[in-house]
Structures are given as C-alpha cells and as structure tokens.
C-alpha cells in the first residue's frame, strides 16, 4: 500500500512540475538554463530530505555508487534536458501524455533484454498508448508554440525515464544506501551532467543557470521535481516496477488537468487531449497488471 501511495504522490508532483516548468519557460525561455536550475534546486531538496531522514549508516560500495550514478546520468542527467526541450516545444500537457507512456517502453525493454513473452495484454496496452499518440499527432487545433521536434524530445525523455526505473529497481534490493540517499546520489550525478552540458552548449549558460534570478524563476519546478524524485525512489524500494510504473504514468492525467487549470487557453487542452491521457493511463495499467 505504501508503494502505491508513494507512486501516486510522485505522479502528482511530476505533473505539477511539468506545468511549473512551462510557466517558468514563458518568462525565461532558455531550456539549458531551465534544465540546470531546476535540477540544482531538486538536488538541494533531496539533500535536505536525506539529512532529515538518514539511512542505516551502511557504507556503500563503489559498485553501488556507480549504479546510482548511472541512474542519475540517465534521469535527470539526459532526460531533464530532453524533457525541458519538450515542454518548451509542445507544452506541459502534451509532454505529460507522452511521458505517461513509460510502461510501454519498460515492457519493451523487458521483452528485449529479459526475454519476457509477448502476450495479448501487452499488445492491447501498446495499442492503447499508440492510439493516444495518433490523437496527439492528428490534432487539428494545435498551440502556436508546438513544434514536431518536441514530440521526439518527449519520447526520448520517456525512454531514459524507463531505463532509469529498471536500473533503480534492479539494484534497490541489495543497496546499502537508503532510498532518499540513493535519490540524492543520482541527482548529484544528474546535476553534474547538466552543468557540463550547459557549459558546453552556450557560453554564459552555466553562469545564467546558477544566478539567483534563474534559481528563483525555476525554484517551484525544482522543488516539485526533487520531492517527486525522492518519492519515486522510495516507491521503487518498496514495490515492483510493474506496480509503480503504471501508477507513476498517471502523471499524464495530472499534467493535462493542471495545465488546463493553470495555463488555460495557451495549451489548447480539449477533449481529444484528455482522451489521449486516459488511453495512456489505461494502456499503462493494462501492461503493468499483466506483467
């Protein structure tokens, strides 16, 4: 039961973070700055949580630190860059719908890497998620800011999320680090990746991202992101990927609902988009229940 509540809490916070990012990018439309600033704030949140909820005091091995560093390199390291680009190019609601398809990619990875069988519930769940994608691609009334490349960024971010989840769950049972400490370790690795990326992409981007103005602008998104990340790790420490991942995918519905409430007409959230989010959640639930 605890894993269920933690996963749902992480999903709500992640959906809210997506909307907060979109709001911040309106005033500060620089994805490199947004990715770094939000992740730095998220890291501070995770470090504060680790200080408040200390672990068992066990000393982690180098292998363990390397595993969680790999998880952090994937997400938020690579994923947050792609995610912020997606939010900038297609908006918060549509990015949420695409990211909610993570169970499909998780099942695909399990089939390819773990030799899990292909059976009809997986196929039906995949068709529901693909149907949601068709609804998005076939939208007639798209927002003016929508760019097709943003859909590709969102899909790529979803793949990295799914891979991160499998890595975390695979190693969590043998980890000496507590879940909050593991989340902080992963965020350290992710923050280092993005700091290096910002420094390489644009001169002055790193300084801009760490300025008080940018940190304040992206502070709400970073706090929501950090809390969501901590709850996600705690959920994977307590429950299986097949349980946690479909529940986290409900962030699609939260993202669409909150975008409609906060961003209103700029996102052009209509029945078609709500239907797409519902199909994603239904497909993820079917895949998760079967696996």
Number of domains: 1
The computed structural class is mainly alpha
Supply the number of helical segments.
Answer: 14
Overall geometric form: globular
Uncertain ranges: none
Q: Let me know the largest β-sheet.
A: none
Distance between the termini: 18 Å
pLDDT averaged over residues: 81
How much helicity do the residues have? over 70%
Q: Work out the strand percent.
A: under 5%
Radius of gyration: 18 Å
Structure summary:
With 291 residues, this protein is mainly alpha-helical. It is built from 14 helices and no strands. The chain has helices at residues 2-27, 31-52, 62-90, 92-99, 102-114, 120-137, 148-172, 179-201, 205-209, 212-217, 219-238, 241-248, 251-262, 271-290.
């Amino acid at each position: 039961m605890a894993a269920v509540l933690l996963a749902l809490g992480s999903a709500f916070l992640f959906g809210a973070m997506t909307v907060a990012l979109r709001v911040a990018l309106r005033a500060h439309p620089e994805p490199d700055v947004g990715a770094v600033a939000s992740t730095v704030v998220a890291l501070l949140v995770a470090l504060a949580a680790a200080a408040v909820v200390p672990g068992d005091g066990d000393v982690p091995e180098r292998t363990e630190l390397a595993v969680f560093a790999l998880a952090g390199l994937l997400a938020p390291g690579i994923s947050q860059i792609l995610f912020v680009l997606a939010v900038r190019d297609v908006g918060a609601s549509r990015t949420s719908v695409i990211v909610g398809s993570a169970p499909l990619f998780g099942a695909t990875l399990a089939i390819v890497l773990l030799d899990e069988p292909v059976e009809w519930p997986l196929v039906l769940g995949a068709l529901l998620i693909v149907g949601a994608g068709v609804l998005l691609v076939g939208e007639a009334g798209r927002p003016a800011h929508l760019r097709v490349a943003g859909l590709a960024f969102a899909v790529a971010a979803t793949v990295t999320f799914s891979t991160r989840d499998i890595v975390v769950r695979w190693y969590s049972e043998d980890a000496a680090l507590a879940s909050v400490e593991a989340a902080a370790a992963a965020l350290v690795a992710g923050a280092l990746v993005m700091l290096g990326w910002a420094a390489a992409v644009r001169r002055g981007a790193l300084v801009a991202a760490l300025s008080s103005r940018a940190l304040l602008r992206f502070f709400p998104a970073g706090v929501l992101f950090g809390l969501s990340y901590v709850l996600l790790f705690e959920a994977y420490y307590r429950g299986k990927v097949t349980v946690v991942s479909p529940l986290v995918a409900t962030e699609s519905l939260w993202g669409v609902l909150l975008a409609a409430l906060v961003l209103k007409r700029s996102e052009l959230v209509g029945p078609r988009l709500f239907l797409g989010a519902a199909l994603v959640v239904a497909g993820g639930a079917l895949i998760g229940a079967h696996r």
